[in-house]
Every structure is written in structure tokens, then in C-alpha cells.
# Entry
Amino acid sequence: MARTKAEIITIGDEILYGQIVDTNSQWMSQELDKVGIKTVRKTTISDERTDILGAFKEAESRADIILITGGLGPTNDDLTKPCLAEYFDSKIALDNEALAEVTEFFKSKGLELSDINRQQAFLPECCVRVPNKIGTAPGMWVERNGKVFVSMPGVPHEMKMMMEEVVIPKLQDIFNTEVIFHKLIKTVGIGESWLSEEIKVWEDNLPEHIRLAYLPSLGQVKLRLTAVGDDLDQLKADVEEQIAILKTYAGKYIYGYDRDQMETAVGDLLKKSGKTIALAESCTGGYVTHLITSVSGSSKYFQGSIVPYHNDFKINVLKVDEKAILGHGAVSEPTIIEMANNVRKLFNADIGIATSGIAGPTGGTPEKPVGTIWIAYADGNETVTKKLQLWKDRTLNIKATAVALLNLVRISLSKTIEIKD
Amino acid sequence: MARTKAEIITIGDEILYGQIVDTNSQWMSQELDKVGIKTVRKTTISDERTDILGAFKEAESRADIILITGGLGPTNDDLTKPCLAEYFDSKIALDNEALAEVTEFFKSKGLELSDINRQQAFLPECCVRVPNKIGTAPGMWVERNGKVFVSMPGVPHEMKMMMEEVVIPKLQDIFNTEVIFHKLIKTVGIGESWLSEEIKVWEDNLPEHIRLAYLPSLGQVKLRLTAVGDDLDQLKADVEEQIAILKTYAGKYIYGYDRDQMETAVGDLLKKSGKTIALAESCTGGYVTHLITSVSGSSKYFQGSIVPYHNDFKINVLKVDEKAILGHGAVSEPTIIEMANNVRKLFNADIGIATSGIAGPTGGTPEKPVGTIWIAYADGNETVTKKLQLWKDRTLNIKATAVALLNLVRISLSKTIEIKD
# Structure
């Protein structure tokens, strides 16, 4: 069976001139791949009529599906809409549903619809409107001679919502796609090369229709299994069978699958255990709290957090023993133990976790160079501490510390839940 | 003068299928732009002979310069080299300098040259070799009928070294390039369409050699000015002159330029004013603290932060008046005023800022639907509050609230600094 082919056209000078990185087309081709549609070309062009019309024509000659992002703003430099009308020999007219949508959008913000935004409700008559729930520019869907054109805004979250809710399901309906099943297995606490050694036997014995890829990121390694065949249920079962075997080699490093994140995995463990958590963050400056509270429903287990950046507040607000800080410094095991235990009490939580270190790029000493970071977990029964020796980069240090700290919680909670089970 | 045009062709399935983000082409178009070469198209294709040859032909018909990355590995699935030979009707032969280079490369690592890597020294006879000091695949340069093709490895640091040391200088020699100057002006607190109305007179009167583009993102709009001419210093002066006029229309919305971010702009204002800040975050769950502390040197002005997720801690730790919470709710003006003022005192800071709201996606009521968020600024002299009515999406609400809150600080600090000046 020939695979359905898609091309992605990105319109916008800011990507062409390199002012922003195009992450949209990466995400789009991944989503297409998941439903068996092969991206055969990605093209980026400027907001110029002849370039846009030329790109439409070339793409139509090669692909079944042409996905277009960008060039949909209300200002004069945005040309996607008039070009679509011209290409499909169609008039631009007021779409009443689009008008109701954009009026409602402004009303929900307590605003009147301005003339310039009213323009957003005018669409080429050849197009079916793709609703935009979180922005002002609707998407446009056109079919001709078995080929599909879809135009979407370049704003990533608007494009993603349209793709997930409308475009991908509709494309799956229209095109009879080959079945591909991907599964991401997410590991933490082991590097790529060590992991590959631990799971070598499993990897070497994977069946032919299942491929493995390693996708490493900061402190984590994702394993992607890709199964290709005719029957989705069979593929899913085959993959699950392989994951069951994988667990016997590397189960303790696996924290989740697919869209799971460390913070959702830890959130699930907290919910399962019925325990609550509080944080004292120094060098991570609120980032771990942000991760935990970014999960919907986290108010069930997250009690509170404090970022006492200076020693005064560690002593006065968090009640860290002055002797620990003055004797050993803020970046030390005695201080981090106090921080984790005291924040539990301050916010009346079952578990307290803490970070203290030198995130950088400045502030290091010969004994405690930039990247020296202490983390701790305390639950009243046990206190676990860990010293990290990371890099010179502030952003990387903050992110890697967050992963390591969440992993401490994951390991401790997994043990207690296993014992209970 | 017509601008020299370049097209960038990226060859490789891993970018096409979305397994990695293409950052090469962004960097390349930035470098080309700096020397006045305009990127008119970026194309990503797979390692397939017909796709590669077709892309060469199309690009040659449009552009003066065709830069190609990827598909240069020693394995059979890499086809750029044979395709170049075929396209230019040329034979592949051993290049002795390339052989010496790749042999030396392996020797420097204490390795023998393998047969497969010896293949790297075979090049199409039509090509001039571009040396690769840090990898095994040389680049290739071909000229025909005034057009230049350059093939480089897809490995970012190898490509960058070739571009910087050989390709860009050679292109500048050959093409008599124009000078281009870009400047980003970053605004906050006004939507794209309203901003375009406020600055219409200025926009309509921009000189011909300066173009304007609107780049909106969550709560912010970037304006990009692009000036084209012969003399860089003159262009910079022309752009500065236009920015001075722009400020008379929209100065109060401008928080920075080019790489400035809201958190760095606010950090600069705090440093300039000599004031310190503390945060009480409820619905933003540590995100604003994370932004502020992500700036290197923020410990000079950031005192501390607290995320009291439940009413108990707002009352017991932050000492919010029980009557405010019980009478009006946690998401209310009386409570947010207490939060901002009390967190100032808790962390002994000049300024206290606070957020409280329903980030969603659940937890709303008819009077306070999801997306109802209060923010406040307090500095002992004045307390400023604002009610936001945002969306159903938790992540967007958190990010948009952060922008709005940092903007409150920016507006208040700008006033006090102006008065002092």
C-alpha cells in the first residue's frame, strides 16, 4: 500500500530569516507519522504572493495533503488567505459563524470587536472553516480532486489545537492510512550508553516489525518503539509484550509512557499514596514548584512552597538551624536536611523536598564550584540526600536538578507503594 | 539593486519525520542575512534520489546560491554526493587532499582509516573541496552559470565551521551583497490590532527602505524593523530615528529590544531602582518566581517567594486576614491586596507582588469561571490590582498571568525611575 503523502508549507519571514526556530513543522510531521501519513517535504517561504502560489502548485503536484501554517494575521503583510482564494479561484466573503466566533472571543475578554479583527471573519468561499477556540484567526480546509489543503495559524498552541481536534481526525477519515503504532517508554536516572548495555539482550531480540530508537534528554532517556503492520490492536499487543520483557531488565528506571512527564508521574504516585508534599527551593528558584503545579489537579497533593533566596529567610521563615548554615554554609548536607524537614512542618505536609546549590554562571568557590547542588527528600521516617555536581549553565543546572529531585520522590514513593500493595 | 537570493536544502529523514528539530537552517539564514543574502526558501526532503535531484533543479531556477546540508555520511543511505555528481554530469574520483585530511583525522584519534571512511575522500570531479577540520565528510563547492551550490555535513558544528571559515567569506567575494539591519522592538500590554491602530501614522510614514512586521505572542507583540541599504551605520541611525518617533506613539508599551525578555527588563529596572522584590504566587504556582530567578544575578534583587496553595497557609504563613478570605474568597481583590502587602513584609522586600486565581481547567464557579485571576503590586506607597479574565487552558493562563504581573511591576517601576531621573 502506497503511503499517503503530506507536505508542510510554512509561511513567514521570521522563520525564513532565522529569527525564530520552526518547531511547528517538527511537531506536525510527528503527528502525521503517528497516523501513517508520510511527510515528504517541508518548505518555508516568505509572505510573497508569487512564492506562496508557486509553493501551493508544486506541493499539489507531489502530495495528497498540503498543510500550511502562518500568514493569517489581520494585518496587511499576511497573504495566505487572499492567496488561497486566488489559487482556488474563489471569492472572499463574510462567514457568519466565523464572525460569531471572533465576536465571542473578544466579548469573553470584555472587549469590542475592532474593524481590523472583523477582517478575520472573512474567508474564501471555497473553504470550510476550522474553528479557533483560543485565537482570532480561523483555520481553512479546502478539498479539490482528492487533495486536501489546510491553512492554520502559525501560533503554536492554536495550530496544535486545530490539528488535534479537527485536522488529524478528518485526515484519518479521508485517507486509508497504513497502521503505525509508536510507544514512548520514559526512563530516568541512567545514561543512554549504560541503559543500552543493560537492555542489549532485549534489543537484539526485538521482532522484525518493531524498531527501537533512543531519544536522550537532560537526565532522561526516552525509548521509542515503532511497530508497523495491518492491525492496530495486534501491534499494541506486540508492543506491550515487549515492554513487559523490557521491565525485567530496566523496570526501575521507567517512570512513564508517551505524554507522561516526571511531574505527572510523581503526581500520580502522590495521589495513589494519599500523601501531600511541600517544597523549599533555593537554587532552583521555583522551577520544581512550577512543574508540580503545572499538573491539573495538583492542589490535591501540593500544599505549598517557599523560595528563601537568602540565608536570613532560611533561618527566620523556614527556621533552618543557624548553626547548620553558619557552620557548613547554605549549600551543605546539614542545611538541606533542615530545609526538607522544616518545609514539611511549615506547610503541614507528609513529604518535604528541598534544593540548595550554586546554579551559576557565577558564585562558585574552589570547594563548592558552580554546579554544586544538594537535594533532599524527607517524610518523617526517612531523609534522603544527594549531592549533584553539574555544569556552568544556569538553565541546564536548574532543569537537571528538578529531574533529579523529582526522581528522589519517585523512588521513595515507589518503595512505599510497593510495600503497601 | 536586486538582492542575492539563497535557498537552503536540508536532506534527511530524521528532520522530515520530526525526530529532531532543524536548527541548522535557522542559523544559516541568520548568517546569510548578516551579509545581505536573502534566504527565499528552505526545503527539507528525504534521502531519495529523485527528491534530491528535483530539489536541486527547482532551487537553481530561483536562487543564486543553493546551500545543502545532510546526506554526506559514509553509509549507503546517504545520497547527496552521487546526486551532485549526477546533477553536474561529473565522475566521482579519489581526491588526494581529502584522503590526506581524513587519514589525519583518524590518526589524530589514534585510529586506522577504515574502508568505509576511505569513501569520504572520493568526491565529484566538478567540486572544489571545503575542508572539514572536525569531522570526516568534506564539504563540496560547485559553480555553474553564475550559480553556486555548496554541500555541507548536517552535523551542526561541522557545518558552522565550514560556513564561517570558507562559505560566507567566499560568497561575499563573489556576490556584491547588500547590507541589512534588523531590530526587534518588544511591546507588552496591548494586542496586535490595537497597537497597529495606535501606530498607524508612524507605520504609514516609514521610509521606503525600512519595513515593519508584527510578531505576536502570548500577551506581547514584537515589532521587527528591517532596513536595507549600502551603509550599516546609516541604517542603524535610520532605525534609531524611527524608534524615537515610534516611542511618541507607543513608548509606554515598549519594554525592550532584540533579546530582552520581560524578566530581564524587570530585573534591569529593579537593579536601576535599587529595590528588592518578593512574590506570593497562588495560581501561577512558582512560575513567575522561576522566570525572575532564571536571570543570572537575580539574587541582588529577589528576596524570596511563597506559594501558599491552600487558604490555611495564606492565613497562617502569609498572615492574610481571615476575614478577607472567608468574606470574599481566595480569588478576590481584598485577598490579593493582603497577599502582595504581606509577602513584602515576610521577606523584608521593597515590592511585593501576588497572584490568585483559577488556572483551570477545572475549579470554576458561575461567578468566578476558570480563567478568573487577580494580580497585585504593592510597594508601601501604592497598591495596584488587576483582574484578568483568561481562558480554560492551565498552561496559557499561567504564562499570560506571568506576563501581566511582570508588566505591573514594569509600569510602576518605570514611573518611579522617571520621577527620580
Summary: Chain B touches chain A through 81 residues (CB under 8 Å).
